[in-house]
Amino acid sequence: MNDELQTDRRALWKNRVLAAAVALAVFLTLGIVQFFWLRANVARLRYECDVELSNRAVSIRSEIDKIVLSSCIMKELILDHSGGLEFFDSIVPDIYMSVLKESGVHLRNIAAAPGGRVEKVYPLKGNEGFVGFNLLDISRAGNGDAVRACKTGRTILTNPFDLVQGGVGMGARTPVFIPDENGMKKFWGLATVTLDFKETYASFGLDSLSKQGYSYRLWYEDDSGSELELGASEKPVADPEVAMVETTGLKWRIGASPADGWIN
User: By residue range, what is the domain housing residue 140?
Assistant: First the structure.
């Protein structure tokens, strides 16, 4: 009788151990399956985010290039008129309106600066203080990029800065070099376009990222390496994917992450 009881107990104990082992194996298997599922899901979310950011970076570059193109058109007009500005009052208003039509952005002004000093500006209203402004005076905000544009011979778009007319803007500085009688290129001055930063930023349409469930941030690094934020969603990004926005002298970064986190 006792032997049978002990045998039954051993069998019961073995069954319990077996059941526990099976339960543990199932638990571990489910844990492993969940781990790999979560990892695969995060990889998918990161890929989708990366694709979205790449598209946004292209869109931002496109919006900026539409606006900066007007500065290059000004340069060609100045060259076509051998440095004369007789065309300015009749043609520049049309350039201004074409930018508004293409991008929806009201330019703060379009200007011509022989020798670096602003001589003609459109529209004049609201920009009276810009006339006579020396773009090559490096003590003034945004002018360092104008000097750099002259040295490199390329159009450079400044990062946002406080405008002499008031408000915050960005300036496209296009150097103009006109051949002299010996065919040598001589510095004529600058063709410039000033953007209203608030309107330009709005044209990027970044708020739609929030509607897609993302937190986002747009920023750049200054010469000291400090990060300066240009705009961001209400909810901060966390461990974001990042894309570069690089055009016309600008080196911006846009980052995004799911507002609810990568693992929700």
Answer: 69-196
To the nearest whole percent, how much of the chain has pLDDT over 90? 62
Tell me phi and psi for residue 177, to 5 degrees: -120, 125
Buried b (16+ CB within 10 A) or exposed e, 81-98: eeeebeebeeebeebbee
CA distances, 30 to each of 19, 24, 151 (Å): 16, 10, 64
Question: Which parts of the chain fold into alpha helices (H)?
Answer: 2-80, 88-103, 143-152, 197-203, 207-211
pTM of the full structure: 0.80
- Kind plus residue range of the DSSP H or E element containing 112: strand 107-114
**Ranges under pLDDT 70 in the chain:** 1-15, 17-22, 24-31, 33-38
pLDDT tens digits, 130-153: 999 999 998 887 788 899 999 999
Q: Which residues of 175-191 are buried (b: 16+ CB within 10 A; e: fewer)?
A: bbeeeeeeeeeeebbbb
End-to-end CA distance of the chain: 58
Judge whether 3 lies within some domain. Answer: no
Query: In angstroms, rounded to a whole number, what is the distance separating the alpha carbons of residues 66 and 116?
Result: 24
Task: Confirm whether 158 is domain-assigned.
Answer: yes
Count structural domains, the chain: 1
* Token pair in block for residue 234: 């209400």
